[in-house]
Amino acid sequence: MADTNCDLKSLSPLQLFERVTEQGEKVRALKAGKAPKDEIDAAVRMLLSLKLSYKTTTGQDYQAGLPPRDLVLINNGTTKEEDEDFVDPWTVQTSNAKGVDYDKLIVRFGSSKIDTDLINRIERATGQKPHRFLRRGIFFSHRDMDQILDAYENKKSFYLYTGRGPSSQAMHVGHLIPFIFTKWLQEVFDVPLVIQLTDDEKYLWKDLTTEKAYEYSRENAKDIIACGFDVNKTFIFSDLDYLGTSTGFYRNIVKVQKHVTFNQVKGIFGFTDSDCIGKISFPAIQAAPSFSSSFPQIFNGKENIQCLIPCAIDQDPYFRMTRDVAPRIGQPKPALLHSVFFPALQGAQTKMSASDPNSSIFLTDTPKQIKTKINKHAFSGGRDTIEEHRKYGGNCDVDVSFMYLTFFLEDDDRLEQLKQAYTSGELLTGELKKVLIETLQPLIAAHQERRKQVTDEIVKQFMTPRKLAFEF
């Protein structure tokens, strides 16, 4: 037992929480299976020991379905309160010019780092060069990706689920990140994809009518389709539309709702007594697409198809809740791949906003607007004078133009050359910005051209519940 206690001390609060939850499930299974009394007693003793460790570490009693409220503050190694990162599904703030400290975020959230071994395994499984988002640590954290690969290597299928909260008509380049990566995953693994448009969430959180929220979802669907998804393998749905037509989907929502208390959603999401009941019940709606039985037309009613969710890490609280509920409603836990946050033009400390056209490059921007925004607003890691820059070099860790190039420039060698040249002072800020302008202008022009080809009829095809090109 001493060794076990020693091991437990190295676990984060969330990892401890998950250990208690798993042990509780084990005890229930042993009792249900009428296991020998000594085996049940040993499992119960382990459960009590885990609960005690949890209380010692967190200062709070274990409550099923209520993870420790550690998702909010991630200290950047300083004692000053203003130097802490704030991360939840609606707000991302950091005082560090380099952005959020993702290594600390992994520890706090209890996820696993996407390391070289996992990237190599993905390459072996798919026979494809890993996507630049994997090579460069843009997708940096995961939950149970090993299980997905185990299943895939044993010829067992899975499906992809990602989403978009349509809060405005125009999307920006940062919104493309999960879709670019999801498209690659779909192609290399050849699996079905469902994309949730949470227009109901935007109606509940923002000053929008249901009609306007639904209109935004259809407009955003055009940008998503323009990323090149295959209509035969992809189902895009609006919550305001699909929930009323799918009995499987609504049943899963109700099951999740029954197993999560008001106290738990307050603990996970910070809801207050003055929040409308729609907000409080919404997490169950975002959880439901994680279960294949929510899409009987695609999966033939099967409930055991595992789901993989590529998303930004601020969405993780929704799926921590989902993963806690899943075993209790007889469903497999969804696996996750987490991405870093896409920085605003003014720097990683500021937030991109649809209401501030200068905070990002929008998919509707003209080549001239792209050039002006980058030259005028992109936060620089360069020095105050050319002389100083030539002598001391620039800082790629805080330079937004370089950050954007890590997302969008495909050539690894070229990116490394730019980094060396900028860090040494050989390349000036204006020259680095020029490289970014020349990278983004054709990329966005090509996207706009593809979007023009997306008719209302094509949107309807993607958004009609139907069987996809897979047999289950």
UniProtKB/TrEMBL annotation:
Gene3D superfamilies: HUPs, S15/NS1, RNA-binding, Tyrosyl-Transfer RNA Synthetase. One of its GO terms (cellular component) is cytoplasm. It holds the Pfam family WHEP-TRS. The keyword Phosphoprotein applies. Keywords: Aminoacyl-tRNA synthetase, ATP-binding, Ligase, Nucleotide-binding, Phosphoprotein, Protein biosynthesis. GO terms for biological process: tryptophanyl-tRNA aminoacylation. Residues 12-68 form the WHEP-TRS domain. InterPro entries: aa-tRNA-synth_I_CS, aa-tRNA-synth_Ic, Rossmann-like_a/b/a_fold, Trp-tRNA-ligase, uS15_NS1_RNA-bd_sf, WHEP-TRS_dom. The keyword Phosphoprotein applies. GO terms for molecular function: ATP binding; tryptophan-tRNA ligase activity. Its EC number is 6.1.1.2. NCBIfam families: trpS. Belongs to the class-I aminoacyl-tRNA synthetase family. This is Tryptophan--tRNA ligase, cytoplasmic. It comes from Nyctiprogne leucopyga.
